[in-house]
Design goal:
The complex is a heterodimer.
Chain A: H1 2-22, H2 45-54, H3 57-60, E1 70-71, E2 76-77, H4 96-99, H5 130-138, H6 148-157, H7 159-162, H8 183-195
Antiparallel strand pairs in A: 1-2
Helix pairs in contact in A: 2-8, 6-8
Chain B: E1 2-7, E2 10-15, H1 23-30, E3 49-52, E4 55-58, E5 71-73, H2 75-78, H3 86-93, H4 103-116, H5 122-128, H6 138-152
Parallel strand pairs in B: 1-5
Antiparallel strand pairs in B: 1-2, 3-4, 3-5
The chains are: A mainly alpha, B alpha+beta.
The structure holds FE2/S2 (inorganic) cluster (2 copies).
Chain lengths: 203, 163
Amino acid sequence: MNVKIALIFSLLLFAGLIVGFTDSVATSEYTAVVYNQSDSPLPNRNFDKMMDVLTHQRCMNCHPNDNIPKQGDESHPHNFGVAGGENDHGFQAIKCTTCHQPENNAYSGVPGAPHWGLAPASMAWEGLSRAEIAESMLNMKTNGGKDHKALVKHMTEDELVLWAWQPGVDASGKLREVPPVSEAEFKTAVKQWFANGAVIPSE
Amino acid sequence: MTLALTVNSTSHTIEIADENTPLLWVIRDMLELKGTKFGCGKAACGACTVHVDGEAVRSCSYAVKFAEGKQITTIEGLGDEKNPHPVQQAWIEEVVPQCGYCQPGFMMATAALLEKVSSPTDDDIDKNIINVCRCATYYRMRKAIHRAAALMSSLPLPESQNT
Ligand code: FES
Ligand code: FES
């Protein structure tokens, strides 16, 4: 019995060797694609990077659709019934600046940046798709009259926008999460997206 | 560093190592004005409310460097026993405090509100006075705020429900 099994295995091994020698593996013709942003094979890459930032809670928390700022990584409504009020900077005597100063406060964990406040209702992004956010952002009737040049300046230079990458610590001393794209990459993506015509990809 | 600030109309020059020290600690520990209270240290409760150039500010979350050259008012500067501010007077008349700890902050927040809105509605009060009172004296505070508004204007005094 063992002799028979050994014979069968020997025959299979021999057959395999014959096939292996006569039918060798084909050489791959694959060559690595060198990624170059200027002629990107992914035309939506700049848009995607930009939107990865704009839809992050560090930005979205202050672009609400209900005049109520959101807080934290889970975007809960601002404590104590705080709202943007008529001018997006609070009520008559309890304003954003009652607690938020021009820079983060490491002792209290209260975030801060110049002109801290809500985006106007016309720039409410909460609940919009990426394409809708972009449309709202490009619309001079809703964006505060900004043309493309002004938008690029706002998005790449405004201290409150750039706060997203310096968000400081929260009330428990924990560093706040930053957007998933670095500040430098975001700025490049914004500039390139506008330079390429600010095309909003279809959804 | 050296900082110049004016607290309750008195000029002070202070030497401080950390310019980010909360204004609250300068007021309490350097200027020895103990009326302003520490509650949460997180700009949440309002016990530390003072006025900076007439605006209510939570001093536990206000770096002293921002107070340079500004006019600061604390509860001691609002008024005193002999000459109480209408808000303090209304607080006395409505017997608002229980333990009292939160009350200076509430009175400062109220004084700031009445400077902007001379006759606040309940809705104005709900929106603007968002300090925290652990003893839940909110009901008496609301009455005191309306009374203070009346004291500050020519409006007739509201009927006190304590009498
Ligand atoms: S101690 Fe400043 S808000 Fe609570
Ligand atoms: S009176 Fe006690 S906390 Fe307000």
